[in-house]
Amino acid sequence: MKVLQLIDSLQAGGAERVAVNTANILLGQIEGSYLCTTRLEGPLKKEVDAQVGYLFVNKQTTFDTKAFKQLLSFIKKEKITHIHAHGTSFFLATLLKMRHPSLKLIWHEHHGRRAEMKAKDHKMLVVSSYFFNQILTVNNTLKDWCVKNLKAKHVEYLPNFVPDSLFKFENNTQKELAIVCLANLKPPKDHLNLLQAFVTIQQSHPEWKLWLIGKDENDTYSKKLKDFVKKRDLLQSVEFMGVQEETSYYLRKASIGVLSSKTEGLPMALLEYAAAGLPVVVTEAGYCKTVVASYGKVVSISQSKILAKELLFYIENETKRNQDGKAFQNHIYNTYSSKNSLNHLLNIYNQ
């Protein structure tokens, strides 16, 4: 068995991290593990293990003949048996399946908002799904949507996972009075809700900082956030840190992890907070509530006062903060680490 992970880019996003993590954990478990990024490389490229067969085809348009032929040639040369396509790469994967019918095609759905949409808004996905041997989803809500609206016979929930190597049970990094939010600056992440909560926190705890780590497109959404920070005199307390190559270093330095999203699937950021031993305060978007269970604080969506209240609880209770961080870390290690996902994934491929 030779499996190719197919992804549009290696920018620092959740689906991209899953693709890289999957390619890495398959090494030594199957005959060959490969990864192809089609449109862009990015900071996650350096996390791809050197033993993973890697290809970048620099796809410029939807129907880029040169990129398609390059990838098809690579698949035939390496005798790839399975394509594991993530997110929007499903269309290219479908074209490859049509040209090379013996390929097994697995599509991995990461897009939490899909469950709120109608099939008629995704006609290309519906047509492509006739060619999928298997669909994987990051939560059961998405699974139900795919079963109802798509044409693949096999749909299964596969939780996201964190590589075992990321878990730092003994953290020697000096902690700072900082709340960290690992989320690209996009509207579904609802950073404004978090900033409004942070205004309340600053009134009683001005020594605390807020680190916003994630891709900044410098668009209208980003400008709105920065204008809010400036208007509320938070320039010394809120840091827009952009994409960081050593994300885990900053997570270990922070004291609390937060997500204020309106929509989610099963966010990789939440699992990475756990790996770093952070206590968490998150909204109940997507599978956040299921993942956190009783090991952290879960609040209603778009309720900045409640979000502020729970963040203040951890700020003012250091002992509880440390206890919950450790408990959450152990919970995720036992439930969402790679050791739990590998056999599940191999069984799916073998089907």
Describe, in short, the structure shown.
With 351 residues, the protein is α/β, with parallel strands linked by helices.
| Main sheet: strands, sense, barrel | 7 strands, parallel
- Shape estimate: globular
Which range best describes the helical content: under 10%, 10-25%, 25-40%, 40-55%, 55-70% or over 70%? Answer: 40-55%
Q: Which structural class do you get from the secondary structure elements?
A: alpha/beta
The radius of gyration over CA amounts to 21 Å
Helix count, per DSSP? 13
Widest sheet: strand ordering: 3-2-1-4-5-6-7
Unreliable residue stretches? none
User: Taking all residues together, what is the mean pLDDT?
Assistant: 95
Strand content: 15-25%
Number of strands: 13
Distance between the termini: 12 Å
Topology pattern, helix = H, strand = E: EHEEHEHEHEHEEHEHEHEHEHEHHH
Notes on the protein architecture:
This protein has 351 residues and is α/β, with parallel strands linked by helices. Helices cover 41% and strands 17% of the residues. The protein contains 13 helices and 13 strands. The chain has helices spanning 14-25, 65-78, 90-99, 123-128, 140-149, 191-204, 220-231, 247-253, 268-275, 288-292, 304-316, 318-336, 338-350; strands spanning 2-7, 32-37, 53-56, 82-86, 104-109, 134-137, 155-157, 178-182, 209-213, 238-242, 256-259, 280-283, 297-299. The strands form two sheets. The chain has a seven-stranded parallel sheet with strand order 3-2-1-4-5-6-7, with helices on both faces. A six-stranded parallel sheet has the order 10-9-8-11-12-13, with helices on both faces. Helix 4 links the parallel strand 5 (104-109) and strand 6. The radius of gyration is 21 Å and the shape is globular. 44% of the residues are buried.
